[in-house]
Amino acid sequence: MILFGYRLPGMSSLLVWGLLWEIVGQSGLTFFVPPLSEVTATLFSIIGTAAFQKALFETAYAFLVGVASAILIGIPVGILMGKSRLLDELLLPWVNVFLSAPLTALVPVLMVLFGFGMKSIIITTALFAIWIIILNSRAGVRQINRSLVEMAHSFGASPVDAFFKIYFWAALPEILGGVRIGIIRAVKGVIIGQLLISIVGFGALFELYSANFLMGHFWAVLIVLFALAFTISEFLAYLERRVAYYAAKR
Amino acid sequence: MAMSQIKEESAPAASAEFESAVSVKNITKNYGDVEALRDMSLEFPRGQLTSLLGPSGCGKTTLLKIIAGLLEPTSGTVEVGGKEVTDPGPDRAFVFQDFALLPWASVIRNVAFGLEMRGVAASEREAIAEKYIKDVGLAGFENAYPHELSGGMRQRVGLARALSVDADVLLMDEPFSAVDEQTRRKFQEDLLALVQNENKTFLFVTHSIEEAVYVSDQIAILLPRPSRVSEIIRPSSFRNKGVDNIRRDPEYLDIVDEIWASLRSYVE
Amino acid sequence: MQNRALLLKLLSAVLLFGAWEIAGRVPVSFAFPTFLESMAALVRMTLDGTMLTAYAETLKPLAIGVAISAFLGIAIGLWVGLSKFFDWLFSPIFIVMQAAPLAALIPLLVLAYGIGLTSKVLVVCIMAMPVIVLNTSGAVRNTPESYKEMGRSFLASDLSILVRIIIPAASPVIFAGLRLGISAGFIGAILSELKITPTGVGDIITYSRSIADYPSMYAAIFSIILLAVLFLNLLEKIELALFKGNERGYVSD
Ligand SMILES: Nc1ncnc2c1ncn2[C@@H]1O[C@H](COP(=O)(O)OP(=O)(O)OP(=O)(O)O)[C@@H](O)[C@H]1O
Ligand SMILES: [Mg+2]
């Protein structure tokens, strides 16, 4: 967007929307939207409180453990699927099923099996992330150029060498793409898990705020969550672009 | 190597003798910091075929798109039939270097696209399109889709589409680059017949020196970026000796050598 | 060849359901019924009409929400894709929405709109809309320049360039966006039944859990996942048939 010959930065329109929010809030049009300035003030007042930090910590913990397990299981499974036809044909239908399945429906099962706590939330998070990671790692391995593989053979590379020096790097752009989408899904999964199992983390906080009609608090937490999610997703996109330069030329 | 000399090949001054269908006057075109064309002027005689020959990236496509009205020059003007060009018009038809076929439309709908945009009724435009599909040798492929065709066949669809709108000026950007050598020779002969029989003006971009000399009434040699016309060559003696004899004609061979000699320095 | 693929699919189904059956028989947990028990419950609830009434209830907000999101989403997407100004103005909102855990808005929606149909429809909309808008606008923006130039050089008007070139060129990606939007809509519909008020399938899940009728609970969950997967696969088949040979590209997720 170019205004008066000056190029406006990409996300600058969010300022306009923030201003609109402030105006709607100031006008007192609706109780549910307090002015942005008030929300920001609330934000700084709650950010140091023990309740908020506990929620943030619990969420971060569930998120990190869930994502780490999804990556540690997902990438090897995907690579194996890409290399073994039998495994691929056995697993692929289910990976596709769970990729498009509404996983929210599984949360009640997790709750009865693993209790109303952290464990269920971690598993929900991992379940949201893992399928796309598997699928992309598989795709990454499958697209590896045959002549690269043959080149490795012809220079006498050992299987381990071939794996770490060739396959991993050749499949890296796809794997990273899968991890990025998986992590974005995990952010949604961890929040959905907390909403349904609402005694942990932000789920508990939301329960508290909406029971007491604390709109400012509510929006403040939402802003923090959205900003964190957006930062994570942009950071991952940045990482992905760093390897994208060779993705098209393999 | 002498630059920017206009050389007449055994023919008297062109501009005096011929009426210009397209005239390019002092065109400059910059893409940001890249200067693609600089102060280029060139006349295209009516009813004749002019080839643009020059190294890759020298601005041939850019010049053609400016004449088509698809790009605006940074400065300078283009006149087609005496009128200044600002937009695409019915007097010009374009054959795209990358074909620009619509992948969701069948061959016949692609060929009829230009007529459709001119509001020609469906049955009529299909009849016209069918004729040109046959002319370019694609009869039987009317209902195929572009992805089912080879590169050369796709290019012929683009060619048929441009021919079907019956424009006075045909702007052809490497129209034969994707066809095989045999078809290419056939097309070159067809093109010569077309130039002879129809009173149309052809602007023809090619990378092949032989092809340029074979089909052209006039060859404009362009310099590398920022591009200007370095030479204009008008083969004259072999044009009416019959298509089969051209490639053996001494003048043909001389001109090919001469062009290669002058372009060689840019390749090395 | 054909046989092997089918055989392996069957084998993998047998393996998974067999594992479920064995785990249920051990049992790994008092709350883990066997596969056959769950299927029996599914058949029972299908035959006595429980499922039918439940799905009528569940699919209502989903269908309304998806219809609204598709209509508004494509309209906004076209607009954003065609105009630099609206791109600047609206894209950031949808980019943030796409990355953000919008489910967190549910408690707020319930406060503002109550626990009725409106809230549930809104949940489906906020889940489904961003990907539809982003796919549409991205596809419109990325229409190959040469198609548009071709249209202009053959004197197509702006409207016919939009209708004859931009929209057909963008439609595979738009359709893929719709499919992803519907997939997200399913998540929203189930989430709203579990979180806002238990109705429809969500009611079966919640109720049978409260009376420890685990086979029914698993059957309901199995059925909704099956339904969603079958429907999305059908959409994908339609997509493949419709845009066969077309250039395809997806805005990720
Ligand atoms: N849209 C654009 N933006 C920036 N620079 C461009 C653009 N189009 C062309 N150029 C530059 O202008 C110069 C001329 O391009 P053009 O496509 O006209 O070359 P050409 O002579 O047709 O080359 P070729 O024979 O390879 O088709 C090139 O050096 C290119 O880098
Ligand atoms: Mg070119």
Structure description:
The complex is a heterotrimer of chains A (250), B (268) and C (253). Chain A has one domain (35-249): MetI-like fold (Orthogonal Bundle). In chain A, 80% of the residues lie in helices and 2% in strands. Chain A is built from 10 helices and 2 strands, in the order ββαααααααααα. In chain A, a hairpin with a 2-residue loop joins strand 1 (2-3) and strand 2. The longest helix of chain A has 38 residues, at 159-196. Chain B is an alpha/beta fold and 268 residues long. Chain B has a domain at 6-91 and 167-263: Rossmann fold (3-Layer(aba) Sandwich), CATH 3.40.50. Chain B is 35% helix and 23% strand. Chain B contains 9 helices and 10 strands. A 6-stranded mixed sheet of chain B has the order 6-7-8-3-9-10, with helices on both faces. A 4-stranded antiparallel sheet of chain B has the order 2-1-4-5, with helices on one face. Mean pLDDT of chain C is 89; it is low at 247-253. The longest helix of chain C has 38 residues, at 158-195. The radius of gyration of chain C is 22 Å and the shape is globular. Chains A and C meet through helix 1, helix 4, helix 5, helix 8 and helix 9 of A and helix 1, helix 4, helix 5, helix 8 and helix 9 of C. The structure holds adenosine-5'-triphosphate and magnesium ion. Magnesium ion binds at residues 60-61, 97, 173 of chain B.
* Fourth-level CATH superfamily of one domain in chain B: P-loop containing nucleotide triphosphate hydrolases
- Largest sheet composition of chain B: 6 strands, mixed
The structure class of chain A reads mainly alpha
Largest interface: pair, residues per side: A-C, 60 and 60 residues
N- to C-terminal separation of chain B? 13 Å
Overview in brief:
The complex is a heterotrimer of chains A (250), B (268) and C (253). With 268 residues, chain B is an alpha/beta fold. Helix content of chain B is 35%, strand content 23%.
Secondary structure blueprint with pairings:
The complex is a heterotrimer of chains A (250), B (268) and C (253).
Chain A: E1 2-3, E2 6-7, H1 13-27, H2 36-47, H3 50-83, H4 85-100, H5 107-114, H6 118-142, H7 146-154, H8 159-196, H9 201-211, H10 215-247
Helix pairs in contact in A: 2-10, 3-4, 3-6, 3-8, 3-9, 4-6, 5-6, 6-8, 8-9, 8-10, 9-10
Chain B: H1 14-17, E1 20-31, E2 34-45, E3 49-53, H2 60-68, E4 75-80, E5 83-84, E6 92-95, H3 107-111, H4 113-117, H5 122-135, H6 151-164, E7 169-173, H7 181-197, E8 201-206, H8 209-215, E9 218-222, E10 229-233, H9 250-267
Parallel strand pairs in B: 3-8, 3-9, 6-7, 7-8
Antiparallel strand pairs in B: 1-2, 1-4, 4-5, 9-10
Helix pairs in contact in B: 5-6, 8-9
Chain C: H1 2-25, H2 35-47, H3 50-82, H4 84-99, H5 106-113, H6 117-141, H7 145-153, H8 158-195, H9 200-210, H10 214-242
Bound molecules: adenosine-5'-triphosphate and magnesium ion.
